[in-house]
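Supplementary notes for students who missed Thursday's class. We covered one full example, reproduced here. Read the sequence, then the structure, then the short commentary at the end.
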Amino acid sequence: MNTAEELLVANKKLAFQIEDKEKRAEELVIANLELAFQNDEKEKRAEELVIANLELAFQNDEKEKRAAELAIANIELAFQNDEKEKRAAELIVANIELAFQNDEKEKRAAELLIANHELAYQNDEKERCAAELIIANTELSYQNNEKEKRAAELIIANKELAFQNKEKGKRADELALAYEELKRAEEYLKDYVKGMEEMMFITSHKVRQPVANILGIVNILGGFINSPFQLRKMVIYLKKSALSLDEFIRELTDFINDKEQKRKMS
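Structure (token representation):
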């Protein structure tokens, strides 16, 4: 083989190497573009995870608010129970007063009976005891006035007792409504806490694996910078982990939306 032929062969080899080098450069450019795209996707997932964490913090604040509202409801219930006991004590006092007034009425009736007997006796002794009859009539008039006063007081006491019974019924109705509201708040709080526990379980179990995979791939990705084949494999694994993380985020979003809808309905 002469020098011209050797030069021709060398030129062909050089042209082939240049062409192969250009192909490798194009593959490397494509790999770099795909890696840049994956980095953008990773940043988007990170932003979505930040949003999810903010939503979780908001829900924790809502949980604390519900707990505070429940504490207020308990305080209101305790206050209503105290008011009920006060009304019961007032009713007992009113009953004692009414019993006392009834005793006074019976005493006045007995006194009136005695006065009537005395009046009959005084009629027999009219001619001799006219002055005593005048005194007795005066006493009888006084007793009648006292009887009317006691009757009026008894009417007022009965009205007061009826009013107190009505107020007692109102307090019982308010207490029943407050108890039902407290039960609904307690059921909602239990469901809310259970939902938070489920969401924490899903987060700690489903997010850990794809995040660990992504971090592991990112850590070893630099070792395959000169191996396009291995680099593509790493990109594929990274994409699978990112898709897995994206699927979890969608599940978490659906879970949170479902809990929010249930909260609004309740």
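Commentary. The helical segments are 3-124, 130-206, 208-221, 228-265. The chain has one domain: 31-55+82-265. If anything here is unclear, bring it to office hours.
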